[in-house]
Amino acid sequence: MKIGVINDTHNWYQDEPSGTRKCSYAVQWLDEVLNQPEMQNLDQLLFLGDIVHDYNDSSDGTTYFAQIKNKANEYYPNDKICWCLGNHDFFGDMTVEQVVSALGMPSNYYYRDVGYIRFIILDAQYNTDDTHRQNTTYSFGHIPESELNWLEQTLASTEYNAIIGVHQLLAETSMSDNKYFSSNPSNARIDNRVEVRQIIEKYKDKVLYVLQGHSHFDRASIINGVLYMQFGSLVDTWSPEKKRTRILTV
Ligand SMILES: [Fe+2]
Q1: Number of other CB atoms surrounding residue 200 within 10 Å
Q2: Residue 239 is part of a domain; what is its CATH number?
Q3: Ligand 1 center–CA 78 separation, angstroms
Q4: Which of 41, 72, 147, 191 is 20 to 30 A from 140 in CA distance terms?
């Protein structure tokens, strides 16, 4: 099985005012990534959150989500794409239901069995009181009690191997040399990650790896027998000179 990973497209009408993230190139660069020979004939394509960068209202936001979704669907139908939600996907006035609908997701968190692999996509875009975020500028992740229970059941109820996708970090990767999080590493992480990891560790013989976005750089670590990988963002690591794709084969 061949799995492609793309994260942090940060689609927006302009580059970030600080000049760091090239948001206005998102659709063009996505097209270039998906055109690469190694990105053809994927069994699944994972988008690990921050599909968009910013927006005002639902009509504005729907446009930016649709631009990325429509470009991805030129290459793969939605049943071959696992969309995962990121913090920036709620940097505007859309509800979680509106964002789920805009991307054609089955739900905000869900699983999909493909071959003998269970893809489990988490949603960490919750407030600490377990309500869903909307119109926020928060960066750190939080996973509510109900989703933790669902994760446990979803891992327990399969004999397949599992691949887990989530936007913010469950790992403890050092952020000291990170462009966005060196001054506040807790903004890169999920606040109740230890609790989430304890569930995953109970099923570590099934879990192939945990895939994360958000940090915008490539790192990997093993914690208590579980492999955590995080990936460089499209918005920072793609350019005509730096053609970097991320493919996993199982
Ligand atoms: Fe991001």
Answers
A1: 24
A2: 3.60.21.10
A3: 22
A4: 72
For 109-134, what is each residue's pLDDT tens digit?
Answer: 999 999 999 999 999 999 999 999 99
- Report pLDDT digits (tens) over 10-68: 999 999 988 888 999 999 999 999 999 999 999 999 999 999 999 999 999 999 999 99
Beta strands in the chain (DSSP E): 2-6, 44-48, 81-84, 110-114, 117-121, 161-166, 207-216, 219-223, 226-232, 246-249
Distance 155 CA to ligand 1 centre (A): 27
How far is the centre of ligand 1, averaged over its atoms, from the C-alpha of 214 (Å)?
Answer: 5
Report the predicted TM-score, pTM, of the whole model to 2 decimal places: 0.97
- Residue 218 pairs in a beta bridge with none
CA of 139 from ligand 1 middle (Å) equals 9
Beta bridge partners of 142: 125
Number of domains in the chain: 1
Q: How far is the CA of 75 from the centre of ligand 1 (A)?
A: 23
* Residues of the domain holding 224: 2-249
Instruction: Please tell me the distance between residue 115's alpha carbon and the centre of ligand 1 in angstroms.
Output: 30
